[in-house]
Amino acid sequence: MADQYVATTGNDTTGDGTIGNPWATISKGLTQVPVGDTLYIRGGTYSQSLLDTTKTWPTQESERITIRNYQSETVTINPSGSFIWNLKGAVRYVTIQGLIFDGTNQEQDSDPLLKIWTQGATFPAYVIVDGCTFKEAAHHGFQVSVSGAHDFIFRNNTCFNAGRDVSPSNTNSNCIYFKGYNHQIYDNEVYYNNTPNAAQGGLRCYTNLSDPLPKSSNNLIERNFIHGCPISIIVGSGDDNMVRNNVVLEFESTGVQVIGAHGADMTEIYNNTFSNTTAGISYGVRRIGTGPEVTNTQIRNNIFNGVSVDIDLTDATGTVATNNTTASDPGFINIGGIVATDYNLVSGGSAVDAGWDTPSILTDYLQNPRITPYDIGAFEFQVEPLENTVNPTLTITQNVSSLIYLRVTGETLDKTYIDSDKAATTFTATSSGGASLRGG
To answer: Are 250 and 277 in contact (CB under 8 A)?
Structure first.
């Protein structure tokens, strides 16, 4: 067989799945697409829900199925009823890409816009969700709801305004909700631009105490832009989870909430930028629950700007918190701005060169290289390139390697790294204007 096509002008009876004679519904196309091929969805709005419990999913990477929009066409999934897409079973080796999941017609207290789960012995795994939008969910936006799920990649997605229409007894909604382990959640934007209640979350990655093991361990939450979420990131109930290089703005309650439940050891919270101007008591990093089940949390190189309490890990043991700052202005480009890059750093800011050189973090929010000594926060102050022949006033007193980064102290120079074919790895340099430079 070959790639399959779905279009709003198609027909499930007379179609054959080709681009010239497509199916009408996504569910029909899903039953027909073979392993190793792609289901292309043509532009338009689709009002059918998808509940799949019978699909035979791939069992290896070479058989991966992709479900995506056709080229750059806009595909909106917007049915009424209690759910939109509900994939149940051994959902494996599938990529879902470029789709808009719209919950504006969902009933109250509905299932997530896209829910992946199972009641069988083979857990969902190796699923990629890339470049999708999840908006106006009645409850959760995206959810992996089984604790045995593992190795998902959730990237480049936009998720906003979850919990649009929850009942008073069910206010705990999240834009993104993961259970399981070995997940990578990065480069997403998560936000509320309405008025959420105080229990609503942005990105949640943990297993409830009532859930069976395994724990939610070895998850990576990185380079996400989260704003307007009362509780921005929830992590825990597992070991060796990493939260790094995120930009978190305007949270009514908590930047990162650490939960013990099954036990949370070695949660690493590194190089995040938290900035908040909302009224009331707000926390940068906060532990919820009692008992000593939160252990050895590592909190380093974070900016806690405008929070009431930077770190509150009551009853936790072994916490290490170093090289964080609560400065009222650590050197943001545009403090109070509404985009992530407003919280990049300017030369000479107090967060520059003030961090701990974290071996596990080599790049920043923009994937620019970290330069020793590290800066505090999600951004590493970057400098302009220079070939040493451009500036005749720059004097090199030792040979340098092919690419050297310079940091300027004292006088600011226009050019801040040099390129040379010399063979040494360290150097000292001065300028005729008296600025001191260092490299490595």
So the answer is: yes
Whether residue 405 is predicted with pLDDT greater than 80 in this model: the reply is no
The angle subtended at Cα 372 by Cα 370 and Cα 376, nearest 5°, is: 65
Q: The dihedral of CA 285, 267, 181, 221: what is its sign? A: positive
pLDDT at 288: 82
The tokens describing 142, both together, are 């995206």
Q: DSSP per residue over 365-414, as a string?
A: TT-PBP-SSPPSSS------B--TTT-TTEEESS---SEEEEEEESS--S
Give alpha helix (H) positions in 130-269: none
**Close Cβ partners of 279 (under 8 Å, ≥ 6 residues apart):** none
Report CA-CA distances (Å) from 312 to 62, 204, 216, 258, 439: 46, 19, 22, 10, 37
What is the predicted pLDDT for the residue at 158?
98
Confidence of residue 208 (pLDDT cuts 50, 70, 90): confident
For 231-271, what is each residue's pLDDT tens digit? 999 998 899 999 999 999 999 899 999 998 888 999 999 99
Distance between CA atoms of residues 7 and 9, nearest Å: 5
pTM for the model stands at 0.86
Name all domains of the chain by residue range, CATH numbers in brackets. 4-343 (2.160.20.10), 394-439 (no CATH)
Secondary element (H or E) of residue 144: strand 142-144
Provide the token pair at 365: 């929010």
Tokens 């036990």, residue?
263
- Is pLDDT above 60 for 61? yes
Instruction: Answer for the pair 79, 103: CB distance below 8 angstroms, yes or no.
Output: no
Structure tokens at 265: 């050891």
Q: Give the pLDDT band (50/70/90) at residue 290.
A: low
The answer to whether 260 and 285 have CB atoms below 8 angstroms apart is no
Cα radius of gyration rounded to whole Å, the chain: 24
Sequential DSSP letters for 203-250: EEE---TTSPSSP--S-EEES-EEES-SEEEEEESSSS-EEES-EEE-
**Neighbouring C-beta atoms of residue 218, cutoff 10 Å:** 17
Count other C-beta atoms under 10 Å from residue 61's C-beta. Answer: 9
3-state secondary structure of 38: strand
The DSSP call for residue 343 is G
**Which tokens in the block code for residue 159?**
């998720």
